[in-house]
Amino acid sequence: AQMGRLLLVEERVVEEAIQNLRQRTSKTLVGLLVGQLSETQKDFLFGLLPSPGEDGTTFEALEDQWIQEHARQVTRMLPGGIEVIGVFVFGPLKIARDAPIRLRPLALSIAKAAQVASVEQERYVLHIYSDAKGQCVRTCDPDSRKTDLRPAELKKQRDSPLSGFRCFACDVDVDFRIPLVAAENETLGDRLKGALRGPLTRIARSLATVDGVLRYPADATVGKLISPKTSPAHWKFEDNFQSLIHRVELFLPAVEASTNSSGDGEVTLHGFVHGRAYVHGRETVAHAVGCLKQDLIQTLFARMDLLLEEIEDTENEDDTHVLFRHGSDVAGAWTLPRRVFVLFSEGMMKMIPLCDHLLPTETYEDVRERFHQLWSLAISGTPDRWCRSLEEFPSSNVCVSRVDGPCENLPTTSNGKPRGSLVFVGVGGAVFSVLM
Q1: How far apart are CA 413 and CA 166, in angstroms?
Q2: Which of 40, 241, 382, 399 could join 409 via S-S bond, C-beta 3.0 to 4.6 A?
Q3: pTM recorded for the entire structure
Q4: Is the pLDDT of residue 59 over 80?
Q5: Distance (Å, rounded) from C-alpha 25 to C-alpha 156?
């Protein structure tokens, strides 16, 4: 019989998490497991995140939808390679029989709701006993036809597994032009994300060089790569990672010529994006590059989601959807959220920066508050001590113009194109620009 999966975790992280859970409540509490799923049988657990608002609830009254939303928001704050790998419940021994069965569909639905790249991989279900010592960990198969839960092992280590991880980073200048077709019963967000999904596969299909080398053998592992001697200065966070950042360059495939002009508008995504992924040394180089590509795609979708949520909160539905009406002369410009990386000097993620996306109307205090609410992590000190931005963004401004008139206020690149702008061009001659 095939052995179960092994979940490696730093002993201190587990003991501190259990201690905090016991201090927080003596009743049932549910949360997320954050870590990395491996191509082998050995996975990594970095932290346990209690879902806000679930303190002391009964096991039968768990709010699946809210836990899924928690997972979706946490996923936005993770670099490539790190993800929500399952769920845990802190509860009495008497629910040991029902807990795995109850949490199995939740663990699988969380992976789908968060749109993680490894949705087809097994997920973890961890039960930590609130009235006894010990815990029980199992895995569940994403195949809906398989309802069994497999035994797994939680192995505690004295040292952090994060010390064996490498960083892969790249800067990508994206320039996509996509026809946009209006459809009934679809929201603006659905149309936009649907239109972008195809072109973003260009990132997934791109060729990559790692430290200047185009192709590695299929079985080449990250741990055998020579540590790069130099990396771009603005990529470096802390001394312990300066020599471990592998530089990746992506070469996107050419755009196929299209003669289809029947769309209701055109979307142009143009801007500069920084991607970053962390993988263990025993993973393959191909897997590391795949994690980096997924990070780029994920951060673009996250920014779209946040922008559209902001628009829905500040404008009524008619104003939002007028952009897709024939003959519209409405135009404008909005700034997309910018991605910032957050450094922690202690705690479960002290060696790997997390990230957040800042709207133009937000400050670093909003970042601090989100990490407190979603991660139960406290950030102290001035922002220059714990926050880094690796992307160049224009100042927030609004431009209103017709297609046949330039947006004079938009920052431009050396070739005259708007820097970091997402532009919707409607049939009626409207321009809707979003600055990245």
Answers
A1: 33
A2: 399
A3: 0.83
A4: no
A5: 24
